Amino acid sequence: MIEGMGQEERRPEGFEKIDPSFQTTVRDHVHRTIRNAIIGGRFATGDKINERGLAEQFGVSTTPVKEALRQLETEGLVEALPRRGVVIRFSSSWAEEMILARAALESMIAHLAAKRIEKPADEELTAIAEMMAKATGSADADSLITLNEKFHEHIHRSSRCGYLAKLIERQQFYDASIRRVIHMDPTEREKALEEHTAIAEAIVSGDADLAERQMRNHVVRSGETYLNIVFGNKKDI
Amino acid sequence: MIEGMGQEERRPEGFEKIDPSFQTTVRDHVHRTIRNAIIGGRFATGDKINERGLAEQFGVSTTPVKEALRQLETEGLVEALPRRGVVIRFSSSWAEEMILARAALESMIAHLAAKRIEKPADEELTAIAEMMAKATGSADADSLITLNEKFHEHIHRSSRCGYLAKLIERQQFYDASIRRVIHMDPTEREKALEEHTAIAEAIVSGDADLAERQMRNHVVRSGETYLNIVFGNKKDI
DNA sequence: ATGTGAGATCTGGTATATCAGATTTCAGAA
DNA sequence: TTCTGAAATCTGATATACCAGATCTCACAT
Predict the structure, then answer these.
(1) How many CB atoms within 10 Å of residue B170?
(2) Which of A102, A119, B70, B225 is geometrically suited to a Cys-Cys bond with A70, CB 3.0 to 4.6 A?
(3) For residue B11, what pLDDT is reported?
């Protein structure tokens, strides 16, 4: 018997092992639900959260609720006062800072992507940018949303930064419905397209500093657009 | 009776209400302990964590352990596979990325601090920098560590960014003992002093872009020093 | 020898009970 | 009326029990 040959798997081409992380848990459902509620402005900063009450509303025990609250605490959306409960920490200024955090991290990752991107990935990025141009012309909001995600995710992969990519995911606070509203506006679509194109060119050409600046500008500017829609305010940055 | 006058507190000058957050919980103890173990390299990436086993080692129930693991998961130090447990996600490359994240966020906050710092705070920052100069001369490592924290914390406060400041705290992965080692080296002390002085000057003079560059350079460079000590490796950034 | 699958076992997810700190209530004293 | 403080109550922190998915074992068929 040949050592180390036993654990290989043979399955017909085209069948992938199903990702077990598709499964969801009560904890994650509670987490996402509360997160969306906070971000959607259904709590005010300082509101106290009652674990038992929440558990009852969800029709579950307090255990998954506690775990969900722990996640929210680490995300910075609530604050836990030992033995005194958790209170909401979210407001428009918090949202602004989340955008700034995303801008800082996303521009860093763009910088690295420009330095590290390799042979086939650069053409793929250009291809995505070109598809965005097409979708922008045809006012296809849903395609644009999907392509947008593809675009940023592709940059994340090209940077080979797993931790930074994870960190960025947590700075997201607007959902598909809000994005759709944004992408309805032709002016916004045009601006976003210009920025995406510039970012892609900078990364493909390996100009790390330029990619960084373009990405930061893009995240901050589009973030301000979101803020105006979600909170209807405006601040200097 | 005058409405709204009942809840004020009168106590003699100099007595502060004790901060209830001084209290610690089992959960936080477990969290910090595991975090330090991961960061201290006492696990390998991919190692599985057994909740029951951990709880037994700590002599506590699984509840606080589960909560601690949830925090670590959100921090990005472990990965939770639904119904399959949690595995360690930490390596030198993860540490590098934590430094990059800190550099990105800390430089963003320095930028804002330069824009937002006000009357008394700017002189305080200069004063801290001058104390650092003195401590550097007298090779007082412990003072330097304290001043270092004061310095960065002062910038955080001046930026008036609560969320970013919290986020930065989570990117810290070296403790006092390692810092002491670093601050022993006279060359490192000198370099850090130069950088701190330059950052303070940029912020006080209101040069946001310069403050940002200086801060980023400082965090990345000193981070590399830490990496070399903790992991003994070197990478391009 | 190899592959299969039913059952045993391990382990994370959830529910419930209990403990203890924090807050509120309210009777009684000043 | 105002203040004090003990008791009742609320609520988060912890412990324990139980359930179910995932993994392992191993007899058995091929």
Answers:
(1) 20
(2) B70
(3) 37
Give the pLDDT confidence of B169-197 residue by residue, as tens digits: 999 998 888 899 999 889 999 999 999 99
The full set of domains in chain B, from first to last, is: 22-88 (1.10.10.10), 92-230 (1.20.120.530)
Answer whether B86's CB lies under 8 Å from B69's CB: yes
Residue pLDDT, tens place only, A163-188: 999 999 999 998 888 899 999 889 99
Whether A132 shows a pLDDT value over 80: the answer reads yes
Give, in order, the Cα–Cα distances in Å from B3 to each of A97, B6, B8, B11, B222.
37, 7, 12, 21, 56
Instruction: Provide mean pLDDT across the span A126-151.
Output: 93
A 54-113 residues with CB < 8 A to B:
63, 66-67, 70-71, 73-76, 81-84, 89, 94, 97-98, 100-101, 103-105, 107-108, 112
Q: What is the per-residue burial (b if ≥16 Cβ within 10 Å, else e) of B137-148? A: eeeebebbbebb
| Residues B97, A163: C-beta atoms closer than 8 Å | yes
- pLDDT at position A9: 35
Q: What is the DSSP letter of A23?
A: -
Strand (E) or helix (H) holding B80: strand B78-81
Q: Any CB–CB contact under 8 A between B159 and chain A?
A: no
Predicted-complex ipTM score: 0.89
Minimum CA–C1' distance nucleotide for B52 = C11
Residues having Cβ less than 7 A from any atom in strand C: A 1, 25-27, 60-64, 67, 82-84; B 20, 23, 48-52, 62-63, 66, 80, 82-86
How high is the mean pLDDT of chain B?
A: 90
pLDDT(A22) > 50: yes
User: b/e per residue, B151-169, with b = 16+ CB within 10 A?
Assistant: bbebbbbbbbbbbbbbbbe
For residue A152, how many other CB atoms are within 10 A of its CB? 21
Q: Is A86 helix (H, G, I), strand (E, B) or coil?
A: strand
Confidence of residue A237 (pLDDT cuts 50, 70, 90): very low
